[in-house]
Amino acid sequence: MATFGKTTIGANWRGIDNTRIKSWLKQMNPEDGTLDSLSIYLGSLGGGQINLAIYSSDGRNRLAQGSPITPSPNAWNTISMSCSLIASVYYWFAFKNQSGTTYTKYDVGTGNICSEERGITWGDGSFPATLTQANYSTDDGSIYGTYTPGAPPVAAKMVLGDGLVWITQLAALERRRTTTKGLLGPIKKL
Question: CA 101, 104, 109, 110 torsion: positive or negative?
Fold first, then answer.
């Protein structure tokens, strides 16, 4: 397991009320991987549950979100989720809370590395498919991702007779290809 993002507890507090999604821009390490979880440091809590999600920096599309949890104050709070991560790419880590104002830790960074979307309701704790962010700041939030290094499974397609057979891992595809004694057609990556 490895981490990316801000794994240290910032010196400053920032209150986030339950009508906003706050997100922070974080760069993946120079290796591919599979996200296992996101963790955020929280201080005093507004009440209810919290949730976290990860978005692409290009298009701000949701890649994964967790299931809401009841957080602990003055502690790292971790939510499991999974998606493929690409080496050195930037991602938005997003936070929302159910009620009141919850406080997160941050240090002052540089550039537009923090954003918030206003006018949000909790609903079932889910995040929107895309973020329409505004109100940028330099807050470098204490939030990070934990991931398993290595290339994520690659989808592959192979033609067998008149139909298509979908295989989700190239390793499984190679095992099947060798056991059929070369009867399969060409293998194409998607």
Answer: negative
Q: Which amino acid is at 175?
A: R
Instruction: Read off the pLDDT of each residue in 37-52 and give the average, rounded to a whole number.
Output: 96
User: Is 176 in a helix, a strand, or coil?
Assistant: helix
Report pTM: 0.80
For the chain, give the number of residues. Answer: 190
Name the CATH code of domain 2-149 (choices 3.30.360.20, 2.40.128.110, 3.40.1350.10, 2.60.120.380).
Answer: 2.60.120.380
Q: Which residues of 25-39 are buried (b: 16+ CB within 10 A; e: fewer)?
A: bbebbeebbebbbbb
Q: How far apart are CA 22 and CA 25, in angstroms?
A: 10
CB neighbours of 4 closer than 8 A, spacing ≥ 6? 26, 27, 28, 29, 144, 145, 147
